[in-house]
Design a protein that fits this description.
By secondary structure, this protein is α/β, with parallel strands linked by helices. The strands form two sheets. Strands 1, 2, 3, 4, 7, 8 and 9 form a seven-stranded mixed beta sheet that branches. Helix 2 links the parallel strand 1 and strand 2. Helix 2 crosses helix 11, helix 2 packs across helix 12 and helix 11 crosses helix 12. It is globular.
Length: about 325
């Protein structure tokens, strides 16, 4: 992602385009992005990015997972692919359902896979319908979190061994005589119920139902100083807005989560990767190469996700803002 050069071909197109568009720019059209006279790809200019394209180079079907970080990934990739001349269609699907699209042809690209060894075995190793297209640059951290004010007030709460000591603080009408542990979307990668049982914790896993509901719960717990413990993860823009502290669960070691009925360790760090339909990888041309090259960092994703969520920007406008600010990063993805 840190490479700061164009390919020779792309530089040639840029030079031709600048010559062709020079008069238009001098006439006061600097707000309109320059495009190659041949229409063969996006061309950088000093003007604002556009996400328009003619779709002449084919179609790319991209899946958006049900969290805003995934929407941020797709918004930027979609904008640039459309500049390259591709039509991009998107679907918002639960993780496991999205993988089924590799079989039906309804999904070409998943830009953020959070570790599904069962699905990887089926679709990559056995049926070979999907291919690992490499890391997307983001490291995912799943864990148990509490608002920062709780650790200030109860410092030993950060150690899982002391959770039962504070279980009564977290009781709700839904958890009964146990403390409530707030799960998120039940389709997300999670094994909190097993952790609670195997660590002998006096808690009940209660799902919020969605990322948005979990975010709202943590925001209210921070603002109103109400106790809350729940499933959360990084990257996520909320971590830049309020302080959340991760509970120290028993350390992850390779294989400790092999049996989800017996798991008694923390979540592993996830080197998030891109999964693509094998046929698309073989026949997708420049679009497939672009997807292989797509790689950015947690802070990049968080900046776009924050713009979508907190600055009332559409995914397209948030993508254009990031593209304008980070040409050296995305130029390295272009074939």
């Amino acid at each position: 992602m840190q490479r700061n050069r164009w390919s020779r071909w792309f530089a040639g197109v840029l030079m031709v385009s600048l010559i062709v568009m020079g008069c238009a720019k001098s006439a006061g059209n600097s707000a309109a992005p320059a495009t190659a006279a041949t229409g063969s790809g996006p061309v950088a200019s000093e003007s604002a990015a556009t996400c328009k394209g003619d779709g002449s180079k084919g179609e790319v079907k991209m899946m958006i997972n049900q969290w805003v970080g995934a929407a941020a990934n797709v918004a930027v990739a979609q904008c640039l692919l459309q500049q390259m001349g591709y039509k991009v269609t998107t679907s918002t699907l639960a993780e496991e359902v999205a993988w089924q699209g590799f079989d039906t042809g309804e999904v070409d690209v998943i830009l953020e896979n959070w570790g599904h060894p069962d699905l990887e075995k089926k679709y990559i190793q056995e049926t070979k319908l999907a291919t690992d297209a490499g890391a997307n640059g983001v490291t995912g951290i799943i864990g148990w979190y509490v608002p920062g004010w709780m650790i200030d007030k109860y410092p030993d709460l950060a150690d899982w061994n002391n959770l039962n000591k504070y279980a009564d603080l977290f009781k709700t009408s839904e958890s009964g005589d146990k403390g409530q542990f707030l799960g998120s979307d039940p389709t997300f990668v999670q094994y909190d119920e097993a952790l609670i049982a195997n660590l002998h914790l006096n808690f009940k896993d209660v799902f919020s139902g969605s990322e948005a509901a979990t975010i709202t719960a943590f925001q209210q717990a921070d603002k109103n100083k109400t106790p809350l413990i729940g499933y959360f993860y990084d990257p996520q823009w909320l971590l830049s807005e309020i302080k959340l502290v991760q509970i120290h669960l028993p350390a992850y070691t390779p294989g400790c989560d092999a049996d989800l009925k017996k798991v008694a360790c923390d979540y592993p760090p996830y080197i998030l990767n891109k999964i693509v339909r094998t046929k698309f990888m073989e026949t997708g041309g420049d679009a497939a190469t672009f997807i292989k090259n797509f790689k950015w960092a947690n802070e990049d994703q968080n900046s776009v996700a924050d713009a979508i969520t907190n600055k009332s920007m559409s995914p397209e406008d948030a993508a254009k803002q990031w593209i304008d600010a980070n040409p050296a990063k995305w130029q390295a993805w272009i074939p």
